[in-house]
């Protein structure tokens, strides 16, 4: 599946921000009313730790929706590595708007940058190999598209977006259909042209998936030896994706087996928000 690009996410970003502001500001920011409405201010946002940045468009949209008079001046680009204490962006405009938008803007930026930072770490581990690291559907509810965009900022790639854009036939689907061949044939009838991927747990099931004409075969927790064998047996008839039990310690060895893809839930699931700080200047 193709990677998400920012140009396709305008409506999604606007919706993400509307929901975030509705839950945070609600009927109005009580504390911001302590500041005179006409008071103007500036602010600076820095990162307290090294990171890879993602989420600029979400920050811009937060302040656009709160008050379009706020100007956002960026010092970094999405996908850029930054060191601790780096100035990320500055703001100027009505003080109330800067304060009301602070938390939502930083929530987006710290979360998406966390995804990009983790992805860059894993992408660096397989640098020099042709393998593509893929994300999964293990995302925060309501932020899937945002997180999957952040994955691309970190140098990794998108798997299917959801259950609607490709088949991923797993053990329970196979059992319900009566076998791998039957499941693949049914998928071709239901949605011709959609990618069909089959998860297999051994080399015998790999042979069945290849004979059935699967586009992609997911090798679920196969040994390194079996992965090498799978690559040799497949000989380009389908793409191979390694999945399950993969971490920073074994990632490079798996990439070197010759599989086409490695999917990792940890790219979006096991993240720690980047530590950001905003300081207001009245």
TrEMBL record:
The family database entries (SUPFAM superfamilies) matched by this protein are listed as: Nicotinate/Quinolinate PRTase C-terminal domain-like (SSF51690), Nicotinate/Quinolinate PRTase N-terminal domain-like (SSF54675)
Does the UniProt entry include the keyword Transferase? yes
Family listed? Belongs to the NadC/ModD family.
Q: Which organism is it from?
A: Azotobacter chroococcum NCIMB 8003
Q: Give the Quinolinate phosphoribosyl transferase N-terminal domain ranges.
A: 29-113
| Stored InterPro entries | Aldolase_TIM, NadC, NadC/ModD, Nicotinate_pribotase-like_C, Quinolinate_PRibosylTase_N_sf, Quinolinate_PRibosylTrfase_C, Quinolinate_PRibosylTrfase_N
Query: What does the entry give for GO biological process?
Result: NAD+ biosynthetic process; quinolinate catabolic process
Q: What does this protein do?
A: Involved in the catabolism of quinolinic acid (QA).
Q: Which residues are the signal sequence here? A: none
Q: Which PANTHER family match?
A: NICOTINATE-NUCLEOTIDE PYROPHOSPHORYLASE [CARBOXYLATING]
Q: In which pathway does it act?
A: Cofactor biosynthesis; NAD(+) biosynthesis; nicotinate D-ribonucleotide from quinolinate: step 1/1
Q: Where is the Quinolinate phosphoribosyl transferase C-terminal domain?
A: 115-279
- Gene3D superfamilies from the UniProt entry: Aldolase class I (3.20.20.70), Quinolinate phosphoribosyl transferase, N-terminal domain (3.90.1170.20)
Q: What is this protein called?
A: nicotinate-nucleotide diphosphorylase (carboxylating)
Q: Which keywords are on file for this protein?
A: Glycosyltransferase, Pyridine nucleotide biosynthesis, Transferase
Top-rank taxon, per record: Bacteria
The record lists substrate as bound by: 103, 136-138, 160, 170, 199, 220, 243-245, 264-266
Q: What is its EC number?
A: 2.4.2.19
